[in-house]
Write a structure and sequence with these properties.
- With 330 residues, the protein is of the alpha/beta class.
- The chain has two domains: 193 residues, Rossmann fold (3-Layer(aba) Sandwich), CATH 3.40.50.620; 109 residues, GMP Synthetase, Chain A, domain 3.
- The strands form two sheets. A five-stranded parallel beta sheet has the order 3-2-1-4-5, sandwiched between helices. Strands 6, 7, 8 and 9 form a four-stranded mixed beta sheet that branches.
- The protein has twelve helices and nine strands.
- The chain is globular.
- Bound molecules: xanthosine-5'-monophosphate.
- Xanthosine-5'-monophosphate binds next to loops.
- The site of xanthosine-5'-monophosphate has 16 residues, from loops.
- Its EC number is 6.3.5.2.
- Pathway: Purine metabolism; GMP biosynthesis; GMP from XMP (L-Gln route): step 1/1.
Length: 330
């Protein structure tokens, strides 16, 4: 067992020694690993760190604001907020194939990040010399040859995985830590538990949760529907365990289906879109079971989504297991 306070002191000292008075760039995604890395490095070197947050417009509702409030607002870290939604959505126009969408999002991401990093690097000897990444121990193992099977089924894009480092030196202070340790460290560094214990979110974000072509209208409907689902999961406590259904599930989210179904509202007929809720329990994400959410919770979420999100008139619940289905729908 390790004592977190001592660990932080050691890690901070190590980072200071490595970096000296040089500048560091870090790609902040809002995910656990890059957030904890940012908080730790900021603790060590303060304003020598600049975080680059590429907002591809495929994030959860209010996520961009949340990341900025947390890092720029509360931690007083330097954060460049790159608002690239239009650019990403532009490149996704007309594209329906899931793998093609992943490739476009991954490629754009690298391009936008590298352009921003190149500005910070400059060409004199004043610019940034380091690229920090939230690589954790399981990532190190995975890239050491024993590639996980899921990576061959779907091409995974993660903010950590830049193909080249722009000639910057790599700073990876979480390399020896397992996920649980990263979470504990995050809490000890003052990040909110809510943020540090969040469900995983795929790099391509809502790009793979809007089935088929990603249109801005669809993204907005999905963001609002998903926000309601997650809010109700967090609010609803299971009496036997005393835990929220958010904490009882490994991953939960909403999927937008670009098909229309008929409904009634007041005296009129509606003809609007459908979403599916997905919630799974899993220990390794290689196999998963759909979560047995209480019916009352599902009905509450359904009625809230249909009443509050104009444009959606039907909510389904996905009960498939992985395999043969996958956790995501694309
Ligand atoms: P599947 O859908 O393959 O998902 O059962 C397994 C886990 O991987 C996540 N996932 C991704 N993560 N980029 C990511 O960073 C991706 O392209 C991607 N696709 C799936 C998924 O959310 C689940 O946790």
């Amino acid at each position: 067992d390790w004592i977190m306070g001592d660990y932080i002191e050691e890690a901070v000292a190590r980072i200071r020694e490595q970096v000296g008075d040089e500048e560091v760039i870090l790609g902040l995604s809002g995910g656990v690993d890059s957030s904890v890395a940012a908080a730790l490095i900021h603790r060590a070197i303060g304003d020598q760190l600049t975080c680059v947050f590429v907002d591809h417009g495929l994030l959860r509702l209010n996520e961009g604001q949340m990341v900025m409030d947390m890092f720029a607002g509360r931690l007083h870290a330097k954060v460049v907020h790159v608002q690239a939604a239009e650019q990403f959505l532009g490149h996704l126009q007309g594209v329906t194939d899931p793998e093609a969408k992943r490739k476009i999002i991954g490629r754009e991401f690298v391009e936008v990040f590298q352009a921003e990093a190149a500005k910070l690097k400059g060409d004199g000897n004043k610019g940034a010399k380091w690229l920090a990444q939230g690589t954790i121990y399981p990532d190190v193992v995975e890239s050491g040859g024993t590639k996980s099977k899921k990576a061959t089924i779907k091409s995974h894009h993660n903010v950590g995985g830049l193909p080249e480092t722009l000639g910057l030196k790599l700073l990876e202070p979480l390399r020896e830590l397992f996920k649980d340790e990263v979470r504990e460290l995050g809490v000890a560094l003052g990040l909110p538990a809510d943020m540090v214990y969040r469900h995983p979110f795929p790099g391509p974000g809502l790009g793979v949760r809007v089935l088929g072509e990603v249109k801005p209208e669809y993204v907005s409907l999905l963001q609002r529907a998903d926000h309601i689902f997650i809010e109700e999961l967090r609010k609803t406590i299971d009496p036997t365990t005393g835990k929220s259904w958010y904490d009882l599930t490994s991953q939960a989210f909403t999927v937008f289906l670009p098909v229309k179904s008929v409904g009634v509202m007041g005296d009129g007929r509606t003809y609007e879109y459908v979403v599916s809720l997905r919630a799974v329990e899993t220990s390794d994400f290689m196999t998963a079971d759909s979560a047995e959410l209480p019916y009352s919770l599902l009905k509450k979420v359904s009625s809230r989504i249909i009443n509050e999100v104009r444009g959606i008139n039907r909510v389904a619940y996905d009960v498939s297991s992985k395999p043969p289905a996958t956790i995501e729908w694309e």
